[in-house]
Amino acid sequence: VIIFLVLLVWWLEISPDTGLEFLDYFSGKARLSLMAEGAGYRVQAYDKTYGDERAKKNKKRSAMDLNSNAGMVMAISLILRSKLDNVVAALGVVCSTWVPVNRGTSKRCYLCPHGDESVVSVRKANKLMARSTILMYLVVAAGGHYVLENPQGSLIALHERYVQFLRRLQDLGVTTYKVSMWMRKFGSFTWKRTWLWSTSDEIQHLDLGRMTPEERATDVKTVTRQDRNGKACWTANENLKSTQTLV
Questions:
Q1: Helix, strand, coil: what percent of the chain each, to 5?
Q2: Which phi and psi (to 5°) does residue 43 adopt?
Q3: Which residues lie closer than 8 Å to 1 by C-beta, 6 or more apart?
Q4: Residue 49 carries which DSSP code?
Q5: Residue 111: C-alpha distances to residues 108, 115, 160, 232 (Å)
Q6: Residue 21 and residue 144: Cα distance in Å, rounded?
Q7: d(Cα 28, Cα 45) in Å, to the nearest integer?
Q8: Which residues, other chains included, contact 204 with Cβ-Cβ below 8 Å and sequence gap of 6+?
């Protein structure tokens, strides 16, 4: 299937090498892209929101929605146009249904990481991760490295397709590395403990250690841990959504 997809995109006569070195999928405010560009790399940011305005006018889906046909073709084409053997793809896959705060709705757990697929948001998230895994296959096949990012506690790495991907890499002798880091260390207004997975051991340098008392000091809360009756629970507040665009 992957080979078929690549051939379909290739037939669009897209140049296989235009020098892209850093691909920033689900880029949000494109902070990673801006930093990489500032460091001298040739970058391309990709996010559904970038195409939303035009899509609304044309009454179509965003051309950068990975769950759409156009979005998938564009995402693959970026890899084919990258600098082969020297490309890094960052994938901050939308985490909303994968994290503990959403478990009551998604019904995701270690035994059933795909959750309740009768829920539209869960079904879309599963499809999004499956397609993201295809991109990871292509990046590794192109001689590059991927970096998958999600908040601590996310079950995204248990997605069936990603687990299958990791096993195939292992069979080929390719190691997958995982590190934990604090987003506060990189200027975030919240702590946001984050997990990274990658085929490059360079990600270990992003773990800057424990937070200092000064870094822990914050008035910003993203979740409420008790309901009105004092029962322990997870309830998101208005500050949670904005943390999604921090990377």
A1: 40, 15, 40
A2: -125, 165
A3: none
A4: G
A5: 8, 9, 12, 23
A6: 9
A7: 9
A8: 177, 179
CB within 8 Å of 37: residues ≥ 6 apart: 22, 43
**Average pLDDT for runs of 10 along the chain of length 247:** 62 66 94 94 94 83 90 90 92 95 94 97 98 96 96 97 98 96 83 93 93 76 67 61 48
Domain boundaries, the chain: 2-245
Consecutive H or E run containing 149: strand 145-151
Task: Give the predicted TM-score (pTM) of the model.
Answer: 0.84
Residue count of the chain? 247
Is-contact 8 78, C-beta < 8 A? Answer: no
- Alpha helices by DSSP H, the chain: 2-10, 31-38, 52-58, 69-80, 103-106, 120-141, 160-171, 213-216
Q: Which CATH architecture has domain 2-245?
A: 3-Layer(aba) Sandwich (3.40)
Q: Distances from the Cα of 190 to the Cαs of 43, 85, 181, 211, in angstroms?
A: 27, 36, 13, 12
